[in-house]
Design goal:
With 199 residues, the chain is α/β, with parallel strands linked by helices. It is built from four helices and seven strands, in the order αββαβββαββα. Strands 1-2-3-4-5-6-7 form a seven-stranded mixed beta sheet, covered by helices on one side. It is found in: Cytoplasm. Its main location: cytoplasm.
């Protein structure tokens, strides 16, 4: 009997876990714990009352776009309650919320993509936990006050070496070289933008 050869696409489809995003967009909540009893918009969350675990392992994602969240505390509880494979959470979108901190983000050690644009993050100290996410390769912070600091992009690339994409733009080889030189001489200074007043 002749064995059937798989194309590259078929092999990838069979061996790569699918990304399943559980969507809680537009819920009017200020804390993640308020989402625990809620069904997701896409009906893909793990049922509150149990259910049958999928046979095929999934990469998982969560989306909280345009909620009123101020932080991510309790994220670990929601991951356990809503995701079949919480350890496989690789995507998180909390854009256009009211985040002033990302406390709780360390519940996602395998996170690869984090979209938190349009929030209220003001200081690079607010982003310190991201240093511990060694697999984070795509980060978007546009629309947060922190991106207005001069040298913000250089600072982020220096402090988050695995980033391949920052604020929708690829991290280039030229930026990596520049950042290595700047880091060697310790010349990164973050300053608020200079406001120019019209006369």
């Amino acid at each position: 009997m002749k064995s059937k050869m798989l194309t590259t696409q078929q092999y990838i489809a069979q061996t790569t876990p699918v990304l399943q995003i559980v969507n809680f967009d537009n819920f009017n909540v200020s804390e993640i714990s308020e989402l625990l009893p809620e069904d997701s918009n896409c009906k893909k969350r793990k049922p509150v009352s149990g259910g049958k675990r999928p046979v095929k392992e999934l990469n998982q994602g969560l989306s909280f776009v345009q909620c009123n969240l101020i932080n991510l505390k309790g994220l670990d509880q929601l991951m356990s309650a809503a995701l079949w494979f919480p350890e496989n959470l690789i995507y998180l979108n909390a854009s256009n919320c009211k985040l002033t901190s990302i406390d709780g983000i360390l519940s996602c050690p395998r996170l690869k993509t984090l979209l938190i644009q349009g929030n209220k993050l003001q200081n690079v100290r607010d982003l310190e936990p991201l240093k511990q996410l060694s697999e984070l390769s795509s980060l978007s912070l546009t629309g947060n006050p922190v991106v207005l600091l001069s040298n913000y992009r250089i600072f982020m690339i220096v402090n988050h070496k695995n980033l391949k994409k920052l604020d929708g733009n690829p991290v280039t080889e030229a930026e990596i070289c520049l950042c290595a030189n700047v880091e060697d001489i310790g010349a990164i200074v973050l300053r608020p933008p200079v406001l120019v007043r019209e006369i």
